[in-house]
Design goal:
three-stranded antiparallel β-sheet; OBAP-like; single chain; DUF1264 domain-containing protein; 278 residues; 7 helices
């Protein structure tokens, strides 16, 4: 793990209250890995899935087979997925279709991360997508035809909407700082939106997701419901990240959905489209 890298230890997947276990959950690498206690947390609350998948309850035989598999088989690819983020995605082809997305990610190297997306953060959560996250450096080296699939992240960060639940505020801030000017490629495979009736199975084609890049693009109640349920203060996160604005560079795709949302929208300071008129 590189100096300055923050990871959240989710070994038991129960996400205990931050105040009780910050020292166990926060790792800060400063040449060596050490555990430290940092005051103040971003907030956390359990979010159960709104969708019950179609199918019969598990039989006793299936449960026994699962228990045996848990004892004897490996889940090594999943073990590094210990960075938890929650944010929001509009679909690029239909911006009125918006979803709360719970990301469980592994930082593969300094420039590349990969995430499994769920419709909640409890054991009953449904896998409903994937996201790959790359640095500006890797994005610039993509073929021109590929760049249309990658959404910019500065709007998610500087709006305060993207958060790392249960992480100390200082660690959340450093994590977001490390993702400034990055891009994500996200596909949602299941209409399993928080708080909305959803399909009981993943149907149809995967949908390419995008990012919110102006205040007011998220439908009313989407962010507010998440904040109330998870004890998160998006406005406070936005204000606390104001010092990241000077790091923001114009990004491609910021204006890709401009004008396609209902209601009045406002620019987010520091969030600028690379191709915007000078």
């Amino acid at each position: 793990m590189r100096p300055g890298t923050y990871t959240l230890d989710l070994t038991d997947r129960t996400l205990p209250k931050c105040e009780r276990s910050v020292a166990q959950q926060t790792r800060i690498a400063l040449g060596i890995t050490s555990l430290v206690i940092l005051s103040g947390c971003t907030g956390y609350g359990p979010t159960s899935s709104s969708v019950d998948p179609a199918g019969s309850p598990e039989s006793a035989k299936t449960e026994i087979l699962e228990a045996g598999a848990a004892m004897l088989q490996t889940n090594s690819p999943l073990e590094p997925m210990n960075v938890y983020l929650v944010g929001f995605h509009p679909m690029k082809d239909d911006p009125s279709h918006q979803m709360e997305a719970h990301h469980f990610c592994t930082q593969v190297n300094e420039d590349f991360a990969q995430c499994a997306l769920f419709d909640g953060n409890t054991r009953d959560a449904n896998l409903n997508g994937i996201e790959y996250i790359i640095s500006k450096k890797l994005f610039e080296n993509l073929p021109e035809s590929e760049k249309q699939y990658w959404h910019p992240h500065n709007g998610e960060i500087l709006s305060g909407q993207l958060v790392a639940p249960n992480l100390p505020l200082r660690a959340d801030h450093e994590l977001m700082k490390s993702k400034m000017n990055s891009y994500g490629k996200t596909w949602h495979t299941w209409e399993a939106s928080q708080g909305k009736p959803g399909e009981s199975l993943p149907l149809g084609e995967p949908k390419l997701a995008w990012s919110f890049n102006r205040i007011g693009e998220a439908e009313k109640g989407l962010v507010e419901d998440r904040d109330e349920r998870m004890n998160i203060n998006t406005d406070a996160r936005r204000k606390a990240r104001a010092d990241l604005i000077p790091l923001a560079e114009p990004q491609r795709g910021v204006d890709a959905l401009k004008g396609q949302f209902k209601g009045i929208t406002h620019p987010i300071p520091g969030v600028v489209d690379r191709n915007a008129p000078k």
